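Quick note —
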Amino acid sequence: MTAGTELLTVPQVMARLQLGRSAVYDLLRTRQLASITLGRARRIPAYALTDFIRTRLDQEAAA
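Predicted structure written out below.
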């Protein structure tokens, strides 16, 4: 992890994607959205969220 890498909480990701908790955890469980575990806390690197959004946009454009 590089200096300045922002780690987001699940509620922060929920707010940014406007999705519910179950939907975000489904993305994490299916590894569509990368995360790390710190103790019992799940954190999502900001770049992983950006990559996820970019991938979904590319998929939509190709459809």
